[in-house]
């Protein structure tokens, strides 16, 4: 995985250059938003379980997915589903701290779609849940941090679709 | 590897969110960020000056060296490498640790220069001259951020550490 700093260094090292002014401005912006990212991470980690509960209530509960015959029917599958949502939330938080989505690609999305297809997990429902998680998270951490987290939730969705 | 990446990897290994103390580290890292960017810019803007002055200083102390032999190619290579090390130090200042230097410029440095036939003692002297020029260029509090990385390179040449063949068991002779 990479964070914004590592990826900037790697990009410019292969060209034997100093980071240009655009890259420096991005780094400056990242450092300036450090407090925001730190606070958002603390808020999310303290409320992770309830974010999942609310997001599931908003998107999946009382739909075909949770009804008998649906992919979330049986406690075991329900538990597997919320476990995956917890992973998405945690990795989206990591990516937000790093300011770079590569950890999502590397540790979440790589092969996920194929796995879900073979398990019969509906992609559409998963994406709805991730979008709901994005809204619930934004309510919790506020607009600015919510927007930043939204980038990584959307990244997960586009990686699934 | 920056401190941010390190703390994320540590947290992920334990399937948890970063702890309060790790988040405090990240906050401190970000709060000093603007200052570190400023120092990296100073290094970028003054690379040529540091290398030129450092070389003059170096040739005065070690006049008999490949870069002072009149072969322009050798002179250019030597000065290019000096510039590159300043660039790597600027990366380290941005990342807040010596990982970029270690990964890009230190692992294998000794072996490479030996195989190229560069007198290592002279290379150390050239780095010391660069370091002295950097001290002359920078304000005190900026130098504190930069100079340890020069020392890091010099130490890697002077005290190379255990050779690659070493293993963890007891050596029997």
Keywords:
heterodimer, A: 161 residues, mainly alpha, Globin-like, B: 173 residues, 2 domains, 75% helix
Largest protein interface, residues of each chain: A-B, 38 and 38 residues
The CATH homologous superfamily of the largest domain in chain B = Phycocyanins
Q: Got a strand count of chain B?
A: 0
What string, H for helix and E for strand, traces the elements of chain A in order? HHHHHHHHH
* Helix-residue proportion of chain A: over 70%
Strand content of chain B: under 5%
| Weakly predicted, low-confidence segments of chain B | none
- The CATH homologous superfamily of the largest domain in chain A is termed Phycocyanins
How would you state the average pLDDT of chain B, rounded? 91
State the name of the first-level CATH class of the largest domain in chain A: Mainly Alpha
Annotated CATH architecture of the largest domain in chain B: Orthogonal Bundle
Quaternary status of these chains?
Answer: heterodimer
Can you name the CATH architecture of the largest domain in chain A? Orthogonal Bundle
Taking the sheet with the most strands of chain A, its summary is: none
Q: Find the CATH topology of the largest domain in chain A.
A: Globin-like
What level of helicity do the residues of chain B show?
over 70%
Overall average residue pLDDT of chain A: 95
Low-confidence stretches of chain A: none
Note the run of SSEs of chain B as H and E.
HHHHHHHH
Instruction: Count every helix of chain A, treating DSSP H or I runs of 4 or more residues as helices.
Output: 9
